[in-house]
Design a protein that fits this description.
The complex is a heterotrimer of chains A (427), B (343) and C (177). Chain A is built from 13 helices and 21 strands. Chain A is of the alpha/beta class and 427 residues long. Chain A has 2 domains: 104 residues, Urease, subunit C, domain 1; 304 residues, Metal-dependent hydrolases (TIM Barrel, Alpha-Beta Barrel). In chain A, the strands form 5 sheets. Chain A has a 7-stranded mixed beta sheet, with helices on one face. A 5-stranded parallel beta sheet of chain A has the order 11-12-15-16-17, with helices on both faces. Chain A has a 4-stranded mixed beta sheet with strand order 5-4-1-6, with no helix packed on it. Chain A starts with a strand and ends with a strand. Chain B folds into 2 domains: 157 residues, 3-Layer(aba) Sandwich (Rossmann fold), CATH 3.40.50.1370; 154 residues, Rossmann fold (3-Layer(aba) Sandwich), CATH 3.40.50.1370. In chain B, helix 6 crosses helix 7. The radius of gyration of chain B is 20 Å and the shape is globular. Chain C has a single domain, classed as Rossmann fold (3-Layer(aba) Sandwich). Chain C has 4 helices and 8 strands. Chain C has a 5-stranded parallel beta sheet with strand order 3-2-4-5-6, sandwiched between helices. In chain C, strands 1-8-7 form a 3-stranded antiparallel beta sheet. The mean pLDDT of chain C is 88. Classes of the chains: A alpha/beta (427), B alpha/beta (343), C alpha/beta (177). Chains in contact: A-B, B-C. At the A-B interface, helix 5 of A face helix 5 of B.
C-alpha cells in the first residue's frame, strides 16, 4: 500500500519546491505537484508544511542496557520519531558500555525491534570508557560502528588520544571527543561565572573545555585523522574550531539546542533540570555558538538527549546527574531560537549530521525518486507548549517544561513506514 | 520564554516572600524590617520572662543534614521563646547515603503539620528544592557554600548596635568599612554577610589569597591586610579549615596566619575602635592568635546572643504575618522537643 | 479635572476637636489622681502604638496637677490572638520605666473596641511582673466588646457601627466609613 504526502513544500539540499511525494515499498516513487491520491492510499496531509529528509541525531543517550528506569531503546526511539528523527546515534555510556561487538549488536537489535527509527550504536574509544585501553575499533567498525567516543568524559591522557587517532587512521571512522579536562571540573555543578559565584557552587570553567579542544586540534594536525567535537559550549571553542577548519583540518563539530537557548542564569532557582554537562553558559557564549552555526563552523545540531529519573533529578543540585531531554524539543527550540533560514536549520538537523555519521547512503538524502523514504513533515508555524508528562521519554527532565515553542513535527516516515502521523506515534 | 526568575520564585507558585532563604532574595526592605523586628525580640529576651505566646500552635521543624549544634540550638531556643512547638530531625551523613529520598522525608514531615522547616544542608540550594515540595515556610540555616541569611542578619544587627553605642541602633551601615578575611570561596557566611553589609551601605573589602576568592567575584579584593587595617571600622574573621591545605589553596596554616591572621602585631596596627567579629567556632592560633577577650571591641559573644533574637524575628515574620493563620485560642502549650532519629 | 472632595470618597465626621481632647485628658488625669490617692507606685503605660501619645499626655497632666509619675509603653503585638491579621508595628519596642511588681498600672489606649488589644497588653504586662492593680484609660469607648473588659477612665463614649473607623489623636476624634 502506498503513501501520499499531499500539499507540502519540499526543502532539502537540492533546494526548495512545492510537490507531493508518493512512497511505496520503502522508497520514494514519485515527486510531483498535484498528484492524485489513489483510492486505497494512505494520505498524509502536508498543507502549509515542509517535507524534509528525516533528521539525524549524532548524540542520543538511550540508557539501555543498564538504566532502563530512565529510558529504553524503544521509548527513546519513540521520542526520536516524534522529534522527526529517522536515525539516532546511541551513545556508548551504557552499562555495560558499548565497547564490544556483543553490546553493540544488542543495541542495534533492540532498535530494530522497536522499528521507530534506525538506532546506530557508537563505540567507546577506551574499554569501559575508563581511559586506559583502546576499544577494538576495527571489530566494531566491521559491524557498522562509525562514531567512537567516551562521551560523558573526555579522553584525558594526551598520549592515549594520540594513539587512538593514529590507530583509527585507516579505518574510516570518526573519533568524537567530549572536551572536558576532568581535573579542572572536579565537583563542578555549573558554569564558572558570576551566577556560580553568587550561588556558592563549584564552577565548570570554560577553559576546561577549551584546553581539550585546543589539544585535540593539535593532535588532528599531527595525525591527520578526522575528529568530531561533541556539544561545544563556549565562545572560544567556536573560535578554535573555526580557525582549525580554515586551516583545512578534518574537524566537525556539533552544538545542542539547550546551549543555543538557555543560559547559566537558569540555575538561579537551583533546579537540577537545568544541570547539564557541559553546563549552560553565558549569553555571550550563546551568541558565539549561534554565529558558529550560522557560518558553518558548527556542522550539526545534536540533542545530547539524556534522560534521568525524577528521583535522581530530585537530589540536591550537586548530587543530581547532569543531562536533559532533547529529542522532541530540538526542532521547536531551533525554530524558536535561531534566526536562520529554514533550509539551514534542516541542514544541521538532517543531511549534515548524516554525512558525519557515515549514513548518508540512507538518511538525509534528497527527496527524489528512488531514494529511501526517511522523511519528516514539519509544521514550522505550530506553537505548542512543552508538557513533560506528555513526552514519549520514560523521564521528565526537559528544561522547556511549560514553555511555548514554535515548530513541530507532524509526520515521520522511517523506511517508508509512517511511524508518526499527525504527531501521534503509530507503535 | 519563561523560567525561574532571579528573585528565586519557582514554578510551584510558592513565592520567595514566604521563605527566608538568602539575603539577596529577602531584599533591602525585608532585611531592614527583620532588623527592626530583631530589636523587638531582643527586648523580649531582656525580660525576666523571655517568652511570648506569639507562635502558639505553630510547629517549627529543624532538619539538619549537616551537624551544627550551635545554629540548631539557637533556632530551637528562638522557636520556643515564641511558644512554637519544635521538632528536630537530625540526619548524620551516614543515613543520607542510604539513598533515602529527601523529598519523601520532607513530605512525611510536612504531613505531620509542620509550619516552617529550618534547614541546614551541605549542598547549595536544598532550601529551594524543599520549597518546591511543601507549602511550609523554609528558613535556610546554611546551604553549602551558598547562604546563611540568619547569620548575616545577626552580624549586621550586632555591628549596627555596637557602632551605635548607647544611642538608638543606626538604621544602616553607610560609611562603614568592613574587611572580611579568610576563605570566602567556600563560605556561606561570607556570601550572605557581604550581600547584607553591602545592601546596608557598607563598603566591604575581601581579604584572601586569590585561591580562596570565588571566580568572577564582584566585591573588591586585596591580599594586603596590613595596608587596609588602619582604614577599617570592622574586621570580620572567617574560620580557616585545615582541609583547604590539600587542594593547593594555601600552602600551610602558619603561612596563612602570617598573611591573614589577627596577630598581636596586627592588633597594634589597628584602631582601638575596630569591631572584631567571627561566626564561630574559632580556630585559635590560625585566623586569630590573640585572646578575643583582650581585644578592645570584640563582639563575638554578642553575635551569639543576637542570633536568638534574629531567628525569633525571622520565624515571627514568616509565621506571624500570614492572614491565613488566625490561630484559635488554645491553652498554653509548652514546646516539647520530639526527637525523631529515623522516619 | 477637579480632585474629588474628601467627603465624597470617605465621609468623615469630627466628633471631638483638639480642645475637647485636651479637656478630656485633664479630666481623666484628675480622676486617676482622685482614685489613686497619693499616686504611690503609679505607672502610666501606653499600648503601642495608639496609646503612647495619650499616656504621655496623661502623664504630663498628672505631673502638672500633682507630681511626676513614670510613663512607659508596652507592645502587645506578640500576645495577640489574631496574629497575622494585623502587622506588627516595627520599632514599637516596649519600654517599661519601672518595676511593675506591686505597682498600680494605668494602661492607656486611644480607642477601646473589641478588647482584644487590651487583653494582649494585660498578658504582655504580666510577663514583666505582677502589678497590684491594673486600670484602663481610653480616650474613646466605641462599644462592640468581644471580651469582658471595661475601662476605668473614659474620654468619650462614642456609639459606632462595627464597620466604622474611629481615628483618635491629640488634634481630635474623627469617625468615618
Amino acid at each position: 500500500m502506498s503513501i501520499l504526502i499531499n500539499g507540502g513544500r519540499i526543502i532539502d539540499q537540492t533546494g526548495e519546491r512545492v510537490a507531493d511525494v508518493r512512497v511505496d515499498q520503502g522508497l520514494i516513487i514519485e515527486v510531483a505537484p498535484g498528484l492524485t491520491p489513489d483510492p486505497d492510499e494512505v494520505v498524509l496531509e502536508a498543507r502549509d508544511c515542509v517535507i524534509s529528509p528525516g533528521f539525524v541525531d549524532l548524540h542520543t543517550h538511550l540508557r539501555e542496557p543498564g538504566h532502563e528506569e530512565a529510558e529504553t531503546i524503544e521509548s527513546g526511539s519513540r521520542a526520536a520519531a516524534l522529534g522527526g528523527y529517522t536515525a539516532v546515534i546511541a551513545m556508548p555510556n551504557t552499562n555495560p558500555a558499548q565497547d564490544s561487538v556483543a553490546v553493540v549488536e544488542f543495541v542495534r537489535a533492540q532498535g530494530r525491534a522497536a522499528g521507530l527509527c534506525e538506532v546506530i550504536p557508537s563505540g567507546c574509544i577506551t574499554i569501559g570508557r575508563a581511559g586506559a585501553q583502546l576499544a577494538p575499533f576495527a571489530e566494531l567498525a566491521a559491524v557498522g560502528v562509525r562514531i567512537f567516543t567516551d562521551d560523558g568524559t573526555g579522553v584525558q591522557d594526551p598520549l592515549l588520544m594520540r594513539r587512538a587517532l593514529e590507530y583509527a587512521g585507516d579505518l574510516d571512522i570518526v573519533l568524537a571527543q567530549h572536551c572536558e579536562v576532568a581535573r579542572l571540573t572536579e565537583g563542578a555543578v555549573m558554569h564558572e561565572g558570576e551566577c556560580c559565584s553568587h550561588l556558592g557552587l563549584p564552577g565548570w570553567p570554560a577553559v576546561a573545555e577549551e584546553i581539550m579542544v585546543s589539544r585535540d586540534i593539535d593532535l588532528v594536525r599531527l595525525t591527520g585523522t578526522p575528529m568530531h567535537f561533541l556539544h561545544l559550549s563556549t565562545a572560544r571553542s567556536v573560535g578554535l574550531v573555526r580557525a582549525a577548519k580554515a586551516e583545512g583540518l578534518p574537524i566537525t563539530a556539533e552544538v545542542t539546542p539547550h546551549h543555543l537557548s538557555l543560559s547559566d542564569e537558569m540555575l538561579m532557582g537551583f533546579d537540577p533540570t537545568f544541570k547539564v554537562n557541559p553546563p549552560l553558559r553565558t549569553r555571550a557564549d550563546i551568541d558565539a555558538l549561534k554565529a558558529g552555526l550560522a557560518d558553518g563552523t558548527i556542522d550539526a545540531l545534536a540533542t545530547d538527549h539524556a534522560p534521568h529519573t525524577q528521583a535522581s533529578k530530585e537530589l540536591p543540585l550537586d548530587q543530581a546527574p547532569p543531562g536533559m531531554l532533547g529529542l522532541q524539543t530540538a526542532l521547536g527550540v531551533a525554530l524558536t531560537h535561531l534566526d536562520l533560514p529554514l533550509a539551514e536549520i534542516l541542514a544541521v538537523l538532517s543531511w549534515k549530521p548524516a554525512a558525519i555519521a557515515g549514513i548518508a547512503d540512507r538518511h538525509g538524502r534528497p527527496v527524489q525518486v528512488g531514494e529511501p523514504a526517511n522523511l519528516t513533515v514539519i509544521d514550522p508555524h505550530q506553537v505548542w507548549r512543552v508538557v513533560p508528562g506528555s513526552l514519549a521519554s520514560r523521564s521528565r527532565n526537559t528544561p522547556y517544561a511549560g514553555m511555548d515553542l514554535t515548530g513541530r513535527v507532524r509526520h515521520t516516515l522511517f523506511n517508508g513506514v509512517p511511524v508518526v502521523i499527525e504527531g501521534v506515534p503509530q507503535k | 520564554m519563561t523560567g525561574p526568575d532571579q528573585t528565586g520564585n519557582d514554578q510551584t507558585g510558592s513565592s520567595a516572600a514566604s521563605h527566608c532563604r538568602s539575603i539577596v532574595e529577602l531584599g533591602p526592605q525585608r532585611v531592614r524590617h527583620l532588623l527592626e523586628l530583631t530589636d523587638h525580640m531582643a527586648e523580649v529576651n531582656r525580660r525576666p520572662n523571655p517568652k511570648v505566646p506569639a507562635l502558639r500552635s505553630r510547629t517549627v521543624c529543624n532538619i539538619f543534614f549537616e551537624d551544627s549544634t550551635r545554629t540548631r540550638l539557637s533556632f530551637e531556643m528562638a522557636a520556643r521563646r515564641l511558644s512554637a512547638d519544635t521538632m528536630t530531625f537530625s540526619v548524620g551523613q551516614s543515613s543520607l547515603n542510604k539513598g533515602e529520598s529527601l523529598r519523601d522525608t520532607i513530605e512525611t514531615l510536612a504531613a505531620m503539620g509542620v509550619d516552617a522547616f529550618v534547614v541546614r544542608h551541605r549542598s547549595s540550594g536544598v532550601p529551594w528544592a524543599i520549597s518546591r515540595w511543601t507549602d511550609a515556610a523554609v528558613v535556610n540555616a546554611g546551604d553549602g557554600w551558598h547562604a546563611h541569611p540568619t547569620q548575616a542578619l545577626l552580624d549586621c544587627h550586632t555591628l549596627m548596635s555596637e557602632l551605635s553605642g548607647s544611642s538608638p541602633r543606626r538604621a544602616d551601615l553607610a560609611g562603614i568599612k568592613i574587611a572580611i578575611v579568610g576563605d570566602i570561596k567556600h563560605s556561606r557566611v561570607a556570601r550572605s554577610g557581604i550581600a547584607a553589609f553591602e545592601m546596608l551601605g557598607a563598603e566591604v573589602i575581601a581579604v584572601a589569597p586569590r585561591t580562596l576568592i570565588p571566580p568572577h567575584f564582584s566585591t573588591p579584593v586585596t591580599q594586603d591586610l596590613d595596608t587596609i587595617l588602619p582604614e577599617i571600622d570592622a574586621l570580620y574573621l572567617l574560620r580557616m579549615q585545615s582541609e583547604r591545605m590539600s587542594g593547593a589553596l594555601v600552602p600551610d596554616l602558619s603561612e596563612y596566619t602570617m598573611r591573614f591572621g589577627l596577630t598581636p602585631e596586627r592588633v597594634q596596627r589597628m584602631n582601638d575602635n575596630v569591631v572584631v567579629m567571627h561566626p564561630g567556632p574559632m580556630n585559635r592560633g590560625v585566623e586569630i592568635t590573640v585572646d578575643p577577650a583582650e581585644l578592645p571591641r570584640s563582639v563575638i559573644t554578642k553575635q551569639v546572643t543576637t542570633g536568638i533574637a534574629v531567628r525569633m524575628a525571622v520565624l515571627f515574620e514568616l509565621l506571624g504575618s500570614g492572614a491565613a493563620q488566625a490561630a484559635p485560642e488554645t491553652s498554653t502549650e509548652v514546646g516539647f522537643e520530639s526527637q525523631m532519629e529515623e522516619l | 479635572m477637579r480632585p474629588p472632595r474628601k467627603e465624597e470618597m470617605n465621609p468623615t465626621k469630627q466628633v471631638l476637636g483638639p480642645d475637647d481632647v485636651q479637656r478630656a485628658a485633664t479630666r481623666m488625669a484628675h480622676e486617676i489622681i482622685e482614685r489613686n490617692r497619693g499616686l504611690d507606685d503609679l505607672v502610666v503605660i501606653g499600648i503601642q502604638t495608639g496609646g503612647v501619645w495619650l499616656a504621655e499626655l496623661l502623664g504630663s497632666e498628672i505631673a502638672r496637677i500633682q507630681h511626676r509619675v513614670p510613663v512607659g509603653s508596652i507592645d502587645a503585638s506578640l500576645y495577640r490572638d489574631d496574629i497575622g491579621l494585623r502587622p506588627v508595628s516595627p520599632g514599637a519596642v516596649s519600654a517599661i520605666p519601672s518595676d511593675v511588681n506591686g505597682a498600680v498600672v494605668v494602661l492607656v489606649d486611644d480607642v477601646l473596641f473589641t478588647g482584644r488589644t487590651v487583653r494582649a497588653a494585660l498578658d504582655a504586662l504580666s510577663d514583666y511582673g505582677r502589678p497590684r492593680v491594673v486600670q484602663l484609660a481610653v480616650m474613646v469607648d466605641r462599644g462592640h466588646r468581644e471580651l469582658p473588659i471595661r475601662p476605668d477612665y473614659i474620654g468619650k463614649n462614642l456609639p459606632t457601627s462595627s464597620t466604622e473607623t474611629v481615628l483618635v489623636s491629640a488634634s481630635g476624634v474623627e469617625i468615618s466609613g
